[in-house]
Write a structure and sequence with these properties.
Elements (H helix, E strand, L loop, with lengths): L4 E4 L8 E6 L3 E9 L6 E10 L2 H13 L4 E5 L5 H10 L4 E4 L14 H13 L11 H33 L14 H12 L4 H5 L10 H7 L6 H34 L22 H9 L6 H11 L9 H7 L5 E5 L2 E5 L6 H14 L5 H13 L1 H21 L19 H14 L17
Parallel strand pairs: 2-5, 5-6
Antiparallel strand pairs: 1-4, 2-3, 3-4, 7-8
Helix pairs in contact: 1-2, 4-8, 4-10, 5-8, 9-10, 10-12, 11-14, 12-14, 13-14
Length: 451
């Protein structure tokens, strides 16, 4: 451990500050506290601690004895979690900060010790902003929703591999069947794995509207499906069934977890929705209210709750939440030039779910669908999608922030109330003139009352 050195420094924002530069097995600790013997000076100490539970708890006791007001650490993989949660349990205020915000001055030496000292100086000067670390019940919900999303993606990959195997065997059934893993598609796949090779027999497995496409099915099922293909397809079908079972278990567990969560909403008597339907317990009622947003289903609603939580005090306004989620374009200004930068990466789990919801809403005749269509004409698909995602997230903030709020669609014609008829007429006339037309406007005659 280094000997404490007293150095002159300006008045800090955090009088007793600490910082951790965390690695997998160890962490470098730096503390900066007032020098009790010399006014206006600081005592700085740095030392290394192990990343095991006993050492972290001992570190927490030591920092408490020094009266440390705030401990900051970088978000380094998953290695920060033991330090953050154990020190927080010891009663210390812990801040997790983005590594991008705490980069040292370029060109200076970089060591664990210097990084810890730099981080501690930024801490005491109040030059950092804390990242959002949700409470335990939201973290557990996150684990389940993110795992379910991973399993769904893995299931999709296996389904795609099955289709590639069928293409390799010249089986073109996916050209006729829209859902290869629907009732008809799954029956055909299982029959192929069981050894059936006759296109006529396989085509008889068609169900529903596909019965009218038996001739196309017979042509599509005529190929070179071998025992090797049957073995590989059988393996993938077993994996898909296993993933289906795990996804169903996770979904049931997520609903149980949501039902047990207390969102802080008033529970006077037996609350009901506007239609007189009893609300489900806990956060399930919140998921139902989010489900009412156009494009948002139960799965997306659960992901929204898991990623932003149920306490909107972390985000004072809806704009704060949109900025945190990186759904607000960044401005870059230098002299007379002002540019609009991209929104940034943000939370990939939240943005992925909102992207799917926005894509679904864009195809509807609703307020959100109209918002997408208004923006896409001027800015293109990508920016229109981001604008719709932002609108969905802002609606979600209001629904979560106000437990009595419900979503009501304003209709696809809501934006027309802001349209200036004269300006709209002028724009349309200019468009026709640019296409080479000569436009003459005449007022629409009033209808004859006699008719």
């Amino acid at each position: 451990m280094d000997v404490g050195v007293s150095v002159p420094v300006e008045e800090p924002v955090v009088v007793r500050a600490a910082a951790l530069d965390i690695a997998k097995a160890t962490a470098m600790v730096c503390t900066r506290v007032p020098d009790e013997g010399r006014a206006g000076r600081r005592v700085q100490q740095t030392w290394s601690v192990a990343a095991d539970t006993a050492a972290i708890l001992e570190l927490g006791d030591r920092l408490r004895c020094q009266g440390i007001e705030r401990v900051v650490m970088e978000a380094t993989g998953a290695y920060w979690k033991p330090f953050f949660f154990l020190l927080e349990a010891r009663g210390l205020e812990c801040w997790l900060v983005n590594a991008r915000d705490v980069k040292n001055v370029p060109g200076r030496p970089k060591t664990d010790k210097l990084d810890a000292v730099w981080l501690c100086k930024l801490n005491e000067r109040g030059m950092l902003r804390a990242s959002f670390v949700p409470p335990l019940e939201i973290r557990q919900l996150r684990d389940m929703t993110r795992t379910r999303a991973v399993l769904v993606r893995e299931r999709t990959r296996h389904k795609q591999r099955v289709e590639k195997l069928l293409e390799d065997a010249q089986i073109k059934v996916s050209s006729v069947v829209s859902d290869l893993f629907g009732v008809t598609g799954r029956a055909v796949l299982e029959a192929l794995v069981a050894g059936e090779r006759s296109p006529a027999v396989l085509a008889e497995l068609a169900r529903g509207s596909l019965r009218d496409k038996k001739p196309q099915l017979r042509a599509a099922l005529l190929g070179g499906f071998t025992e090797h293909h049957a073995f590989m397809v059988g393996q993938f079908l077993e994996l898909i069934d296993t993933l289906d079972a795990h996804i169903a278990q996770l979904t049931a567990r997520i609903e149980e977890h949501l039902a047990a969560m207390d969102t802080g909403a008033p529970h006077a008597g037996a609350p009901h929705t506007g239609g007189g339907v009893p609300l489900r317990p806990g956060a399930l009622a919140l998921a139902d209210r989010l489900d009412a947003i156009t494009g948002v289903g139960q799965t997306t609603a659960q992901i929204i709750i898991a990623e932003i939580g149920t306490d909107m005090s972390r985000f004072p306004t809806a704009d704060h939440l949109a900025s945190w989620a990186r759904l607000t374009p960044q401005t870059e200004q230098s002299g007379p030039v002002t540019r609009s930068r991209g929104t940034g990466k943000g939370n990939p789990w939240l943005k992925g779910a909102l992207g799917e919801a926005a894509a679904a809403a864009s195809r509807t005749h609703t307020f959100l669908g109209s918002r997408y269509k208004r923006v896409v004409k001027r800015r293109g698909h990508a920016r229109a999608l981001v604008a719709t995602m932002r609108s969905i997230l802002i609606i979600a903030w209001h629904l979560i922030n106000d437990p009595n709020a419900t979503y009501q669609d304003l209709g696809e014609h809501w934006h027309q109330r802001l349209t200036n008829p004269a300006r709209k007429t002028r724009d349309l006339v200019h468009q026709l003139e640019r296409l080479g037309h000569q436009v003459t406007l005449a007022p629409t005659p009033d209808p004859d009352p006699a008719t």
